[in-house]
Design goal:
Length: 267
């Protein structure tokens, strides 16, 4: 069973094709990065992959469940999503640990859900992995941008309530986890992400980023999105070539791989 499978997927809004005839397979164990210009449809793909959006045409299968033929409440409990939009829905006075714990009930979790001591232990463990244990009781709103991003990722990894059981996240989706970070913040986040990529419980990870320098070690595959279509996809070392990157962003770019990182600059 593949964690993700898109077959000729299309999304149409007001006669515009946001996603066009997109086919994509993410096999178990793979870690993907999606790159592409603003408005090319990256977030839309993550909304499909997290069962928050249904395709207008084609089929989407997530963790073996076909969208439209599945109870998405249960499916969503197996998926972790960290997206900028999520943090805007939270009260600024809630603490970092409360923010992580709300991950237990998925998106739009109200504050009056029940959290027990085991949830608290787990949230603290996740904050510890993000090197943020000492910030657990700080208000989420006063944390730095980099700290907030890590809290959101920890929240996406919080085990989920599904009916009477609690489940570990199997598919992790990250939308621009490094957006707005300074150099130090980016390096700390990259180290955190590198550890997450090694987590064997995660059958797949898909992250979206704008900069190749923000791709952590452990990413195995890449997809380049242009106007709602993948113009290249496959093993990262095959996809991230000068010609592919230049075509994707409509500018002559040079990309090189050095010391575990992908560096891009104008020719
Ligand atoms: N509900 C909607 N109705 C109409 N257009 C939409 C809707 N949702 C998204 N779009 C449009 O779809 C396109 C793709 O949006 P999306 O957010 O997926 O792009 P993106 O690649 O994530 O961009 P960015 O890099 O800026 O985050 C954009 O042009 C956006 O305006
Ligand atoms: Mg986006």
């Amino acid at each position: 069973m593949e964690p993700l499978r898109f077959d000729q997927v299309g999304i149409t809004r007001s006669a515009h094709k946001l996603i066009n005839n997109l086919s994509w397979k993410v096999a178990s164990g793979q870690r993907w990065v999606i790159l592409g210009p603003n408005g090319s449809g990256k977030t839309t793909i993550l909304m499909l992959a997290s069962a928050r959006l249904f395709p207008s045409s084609g089929t989407v299968e997530i963790l073996g469940c076909k969208l439209g033929k599945t109870d998405t409440r249960y499916l969503k409990s197996r998926i972790g999503l960290s997206a900028p939009l999520e943090s805007r829905m939270f009260s600024a006075t809630g603490t970092a640990i409360e923010m992580v714990m709300t991950g237990k009930y998925g998106d739009l979790a109200p504050w009056w859900h029940h959290y027990d001591s085991q949830d608290k232990r787990h949230a603290l463990l996740l904050l510890g992995q993000a090197e943020l244990e000492e910030k657990a009781e700080e208000a989420f709103g006063v944390l730095s941008e980099g700290e907030r991003q890590k809290v959101l990722i920890a929240r996406a990894l919080m085990p989920r309530q599904a009916g009477f059981a609690t489940r570990e996240v199997e598919l992790l989706l990250l939308d621009e986890p490094s957006a707005g970070l300074d150099l130090g913040g980016r390096e700390h986040l990259l180290a955190y992400l590198e550890n997450i990529m090694k987590n064997p419980q995660l059958s797949a990870v898909v992250m979206v980023t704008h900069h190749t320098e923000q791709i952590p070690l452990g990413i195995s595959h890449a997809a380049l999105l242009k106007k709602g279509e993948f113009m290249a996809q496959g093993p990262i070392e095959e996809v991230l070539s000068d010609s592919n990157i230049s075509e994707c962003f409509d500018i002559q770019l040079k990309i090189r791989y050095e010391k575990g990182r992908w560096w891009t600059a104008r020719l």
